[in-house]
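User: Please fill in residues for this 342-position structure.
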């Protein structure tokens, strides 16, 4: 069952079984709607954090959007060595994805792709490794948002894939909350994969971006919580003119385990509002991580969330926030607060 963008009314995501073919996955490798028009000109660097303007200048040069420096009347200044990739390291909400999308739009390239880390690994799963290499071989640019290595399998796949693409001339741009030589720390036995991780990081010039969450909401602030009556009214009102979802939190979380994360974008296709009843804290980390991936897709699609029960910023217990996925959970909290207040 799929969702039509022209429908109105209420659907239950836990009853949907979205399908996504490899060709559709490739076609979706473009910046999400909120960054469809992102440019360097619209990136507002915070003067309180000089690294933001410095990053913008460096990335404009990387994308060929800034004029080259001149070295005199009859000679050119020697350009510094430029690595095949740039890696934007910084906290959530400092504009990394905006800058990544700006690179995508500014770089004059015939073949370029933009996707989240999970979208690329999902594509490998759908098409097979060698077919994915052939698909991207010769591409001018690969943009990878939220680069995270959560397990050894993903580490090996992505390091091999990027190494082959760099060799064939593809340029890389990535964002993450973790410096490339620290990928995998606290998540698995990273020492067993140091050679692969370091080989990958050698392809990137790391650019640090400091700052505070541009949404100006502290991560310990609370997401909006509706009473039962308020929730019913909000869903009913939205359903008169748009398609909205209405699911018990536990039902949706259980269903996410049966849907590959690459298909979450299809799960919310056509929706205008996401409704969650009876929200409660997670007790299982795998379920929590799947929910994080789901919220990433909801946030990229700029969908407001209406929820009742536990405040959504409190669904990740302290023991999870203290673990190796802390930054991933904090990013989700930031996005949940923004989405419930939208």
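Assistant: Residues filled in for all 342 positions:
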């Amino acid at each position: 069952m799929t969702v039509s963008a022209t429908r109105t009314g209420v659907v239950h995501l836990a009853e949907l079984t979205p399908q996504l073919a490899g060709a559709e996955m490739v076609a979706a490798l473009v910046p999400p709607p909120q960054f469809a028009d992102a440019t360097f000109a619209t990136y507002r660097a915070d003067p309180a954090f000089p690294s933001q303007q410095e990053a913008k200048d460096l990335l404009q040069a990387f994308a060929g959007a800034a004029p080259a420096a001149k070295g005199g009347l009859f000679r050119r200044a020697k350009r510094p060595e430029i690595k095949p990739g740039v890696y934007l390291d910084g906290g959530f909400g400092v504009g990394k994805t905006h800058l990544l999308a700006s690179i995508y739009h500014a770089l004059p390239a015939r073949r370029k792709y933009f996707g989240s880390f999970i979208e690329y690994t999902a594509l490998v799963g759908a098409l097979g490794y060698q077919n994915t290499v052939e698909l991207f071989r010769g591409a001018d640019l690969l943009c990878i948002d939220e680069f995270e290595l959560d397990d050894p399998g993903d580490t090996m796949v992505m390091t091999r894939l990027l190494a082959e693409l760099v060799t064939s001339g593809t340029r890389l741009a990535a964002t993450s909350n973790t410096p490339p030589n620290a990928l995998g720390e606290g998540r698995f036995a990273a020492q067993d994969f140091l050679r692969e991780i370091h080989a990958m990081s050698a392809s990137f010039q790391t650019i640090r971006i400091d700052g505070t969450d541009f949404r100006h909401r502290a991560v310990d602030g609370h997401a909006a919580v509706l009473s039962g009556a308020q929730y019913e009214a909000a869903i009913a009102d939205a359903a008169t003119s748009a398609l909205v979802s209405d699911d018990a939190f536990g039902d949706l979380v259980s269903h996410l385990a049966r849907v590959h994360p690459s298909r979450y974008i299809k799960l919310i296709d056509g929706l205008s509002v996401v409704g969650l009843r009876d929200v409660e804290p997670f007790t299982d980390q795998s379920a929590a991580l799947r929910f994080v991936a789901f919220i990433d897709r909801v946030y990229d699609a700029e969908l407001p969330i209406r929820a009742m029960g536990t405040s959504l910023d409190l669904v990740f217990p302290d023991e999870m926030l203290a673990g190796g996925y802390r930054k991933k959970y904090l990013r989700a909290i930031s996005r949940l607060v923004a989405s419930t207040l939208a």
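For context: The radius of gyration is 21 Å.
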